[in-house]
Amino acid sequence: MTAISPDRVAQAATAITDAGGSRADADVAKLMVLKYLGLQPGASLVVTNQDVIGACDYLYGAPGHEPWSWYEPFSGDWRKDAGNGGWPVGSVKTQFERPNRSLKALLNSEKVGAAVRVSLKGDEAGYIEALPKHIKARKFPLSEVVIWFSRNRVDLPNAAEVNLSALIDDFVELFHFSDGELETLFGDIADEGVPLVADEEVTPIGLRLPHPSLPRDRNPANPSEPEVVADEGYSWTQDYANKSFRSIDVRGMVETVKTLADGRDLVLPDEDTLIERCVVALLSGNLILQGPPGTGKTTLARLLAEAFSADVVITTATADWTTYDVIGGLRPTADGALAPILGAVPKTALSCAEVMRQAETQSSEADGSSGVNTEARWLIIDELNRADIDRAVGGLYTVLSTTDVSHLRTTPIDLWFEHKPERRLLWVPGRFRIIGTMNDVDTSFVNSISQGLTRRFQFVYVGVPSQDQTISEMELCRRQAQNWLATQYPDLDLMQQGDAVSAVLAPIQERMTDIFGWLRHGRHAETTGAIYSWPIGSAQSVDLWKAVLLTLASGPGITDESLIRAFDACFADRIVPQMGTLRSSHIAEIQRYFESEHAPLAETCRAVRHLCNTQSVR
Question: Could you write out the three-class secondary structure of 175-228?
């Protein structure tokens, strides 16, 4: 088993970096991700975050300098050092869905659920002609590029060296490159042999590449011994505590969020008022979205961040959260020492400051080619009240009391666990926000929040759609499920069948509309006068549609009865168990409703009957 020498790979990476290093050069790296995933003229490609992460693990993975696990030589940058994973984990939305000016001239892109469908503009000849006009990078030495992308191969000839020309065909096949693309992006390939190394322990390639903290044009004197770089600490973050949002156009932001919500087929009750309350809350401080499960709280949080030009880090609170998880502390290392580790809030706040600093650098560049200006990074804490958050927040009480820049300038986070004095204080950026989501239905399984902490957030309720929205909601939920199907199982895509599919699914949609309307808005009990209602969310409707669409797409000749059975089984297995926290009298009302109005849903009727009396035989 043989592989290219890590020394030679590190030299190749340096040679590629020396040939480039600008944002235009980084566009080549993004284009190569899509080419690796199969993008070619005349065909579209649906990509998800996981597709992009997998591609970058393969194309740019350079282990040895944790946590900087990707090295992108076209711009000479280490990636994945940010709280959300770094470029290009978030690139489906920010890099491909809304490409910068250069890539936008070459790519068509549209959202498909949580994924993005991309294609090259024009035919192959037009694309090749446009490529050098819009990708204005210098030509990279093909010899070095081939060496870099062959660095992980262990199937090379068992010889002292291998001729580069032997690798070029594999390289072209890997990226689906045409002759025109090779000619535009790369220089001539040198006819040289590449040193191989047999089975032996070698210093990881990551340790031979430029250290992330060094300027791009500096290399350690001895690449096998990483250079110790002076730690600038966190004092620089004080500069960003004083910088809040550039835009305070409330109406414009509301319209942006509405447009984004429409693109995600998200149904929100009293949409204008709800979104405006959220935008105003975020301009003045941190926000908590509360409401029943499945009402789109986390999706809304993402869309709000996008409207503010912020990307997000998402974490989920758990019952065992402490100040270690929120603020940070000391973690044992393999050698028995204790190393400092940042918790969710300071880690994301630091990452936000880094994003703001990078945005300033990019805006100062003359070409102005950036189509997406990410100006902040926010923390979304899902299921906030699953944790004893008052105890976990600890010393952040004072910092969180307000987001006024005058307060943030004078109130840094005290990172007591940091060994180095220059890292003891971290200032929270003026554009940093926390959005929490809270389930206010399962009160038996969540923690209360003190008045002192609730004063530090604005609480906005996200409920279920109104009764007159139910019909359109079920239609939008069906579209969400179809987008999911097209992304998850493209061979079963029903999107192209349009009206024919809608006609087949009409009876299911009518039944679902009736059931969700009744469950949510209930009726008066005849004896007590009580109103039985259950705020079941839109996400549960999407789950039901997924089961129905999977059945419909499974083959020809699917009958109406088959679709009813799929709906019935999913409702019994997925929705009825969620009724377990309802009062027994309420469940009894639901049982009477299904048995009288929806008797064909035999499995659902049996499941609700069993929920009323778990000692019974289903």
Answer: HCCCHHHHHHHECCCCCCEEEEECCCCCCCHHHHCCCCCCCCCCCCCCCCCCCC
The DSSP secondary structure of 272-323, one letter per residue, reads: HHHHHHHHHHHHHSEEEEEESTTSSHHHHHHHHHHHTTEEEEEEE--TT--H
Give backbone dihedrals phi and psi of 435, rounded to 5 degrees, phi first: -115, 120
Q: pLDDT tens digits for 343-372?
A: 999 999 999 999 898 887 766 544 444 444
Taking alpha carbons only, the member of 472, 486, 608 closest to residue 538 is 472
Contacts 24+ apart (CB under 8 A), 268-274: 268/296, 268/300, 268/462, 268/465, 269/462, 269/463, 269/464, 269/465, 269/466, 269/469, 270/466, 274/460, 274/462
- pLDDT digit string, tens, across residues 314-340: 999 998 999 999 999 999 888 788 899
CA distances from 599 to 11, 383, 603 (A): 72, 36, 9
For the record, the structure tokens of 448 come out as: 């209360």
Predicted structure pTM score: 0.66
Joined together, the tokens standing for residue 198 give 């047999």
> In angstroms, how far is CA 443 from the centroid of its own chain?
29
Average pLDDT over residues 133-151: 83
